[in-house]
Amino acid sequence: MLSHISTSPFFLRPSLLLPSTTAKLPYYPFQFPIQQKRHRFVLSETRAAAATSMDSVAIENVEKRCKLSLEELNWDNSFVNELPADPINDNIPRQVLHACYTKVLPSVPVSNPQLVAWSDSVAELLELDPKEFERPDFPLIFSGASPLVGAISYAQNYGGHQFGTWAGQLGDGRAITLGEILNSKSQRWELQLKGAGKTPYSRFADGLAVLRSSIREFLCSEAMHGLGIPTTQALCLVTTGKDVLRDMFYDGNPKNEPGAIVCRVAQSFLRFGSYQLHASRGKRDFEIVCALADYAIRYHFPHLENRTRSEGISLNAGEENNSAVDLTSNKYAAWAVEVAERTASTIARWQDVGFTHGVMNTDNMSVLGLTIDYGPFGFLDAFDPSYTPNTTDLPGRRYCFANQPDVGLWNIAQFTAALSTAELLSDEEADYVMERYGNKFMDDYQDIMTRKLGLANYNQKLISELLKNMAIDKVDYTNFFRSLSNIKADPAIPEDKLLIPLKAVLLDIGMERNEAWTSWVKWYIHELSTTGVSDEERKISMNSINPKYILRNYLCQSAIDAAEKGDFGEVRQLLKVMQCPFDEQPGMDKYAQLPPAWASRPGVCMLSCSS
Known about the structure:
With 611 residues, this protein is α+β, with helices and mostly antiparallel strands. It has 16 helices and eleven strands.
């Protein structure tokens, strides 16, 4: 159990805090060809006009191909075609053995389903014509009540550790994948309906979802994408027109809530637990672990198939011994390293924006390094390293904000243990994967914090003192870093004027704390004055990494309250704001305000897993 609390937003065991071996990619400026003799490029007016006309036709044809109807989507369905299936068709809760999935159809009852919100940017990824959202049957299709031509729907089989304890088989208990779509760029996208009905993995649950949690997942996945953080996304959100019984606080007082379904979109929904389950079931299933690894590499890490020593892969296993890990001779080791590094980078970005996932179980960890499964998440308001948005996590705060980097490492250890059990990794390779996680997290986190403060170099003491001050005075995390760009790098500013740029975020601090902040700002200004960067240039740079808008829980709740009364306007407006979180967006300042007093009520500032 990770129970330690500190003002630092990350904790990693000292053995992992090693200098990074990750090489920086070289910068290649655009190369322009030497000017050629003019006659080689001259076309007659007739030929030029013809070429222009042909180009216009080609562009028009491409645009037409990239605006597809639902019936024209290119389904590939590699997962069901290439991996072992459940031979039993009964859709009843049970242990599913020696299989990666069960074919199952959506079965949620619906009555006049309605489209709540949609994402034009996700439609663009799928090359879906935005006019398809206007179809009268669109809500029926994405509630699962009407089938999509070409889709082969299934529920995935996986296990996981929940709050540090092995839970055995879990699986998609209410998420049904429709299949995979290939766009014209050969990009693969899975579509999945969350809340679409029972599956063999539903256990004692009903396989349904409510509007409250579906709005949160829809908005947060798109907000995280807007922040530039790897994430699943969402194509659309529909109501089912039927009520769902939920005990929101697990206090024995269930009530009916509006039902809903969100269509989640990702390159893959493979999880750490996808490998753990089969590794836990003995030698017969080791082949499935290998098949799943081969599948992931083939479709999502194809560059690892034919790696050679000439590609400059780091083979050093660490500084404490002279043993080597040859990533070129074992593609599974190279793959595990990349999974670890992607995970580390994503969690570093969580720490950057103050995001707390809330349920970092291994079944909620993507092998693509995506943020996945938005349940009782929360963004920091007042900076509190021990903050957890999940009421279930309160006793030990295992998944609190400060613990997330350590939990990521623990989860990677479980993932590599599964691969080692299936004889895909050696012990040395597994240790090296974890070392690379630590290196990558520290590299990315230090780079992020340096840029958040507009510094030339990482300054651990300066940043640690800042976080300590923020925790003491419960300073709003997002608004503080956004305001920090207003400070001028002028050492001649009078001491009594130093805190003026921060007066909106340093609220109700006494004289003693005023002195502490003044001392820190003087130190900070001294560091800024050595960078040689103008105040204007630094402000632009800092505002490109420090968002003005984050999806605070109270904003979600306001949208939920309106939607439950039939008004979906606030959901759509909030989506629009969160898609551009770094922009000033005149007239939208209310979405950057601190939480009101009512936001402290149960179900807003903290939530349960009930959804």
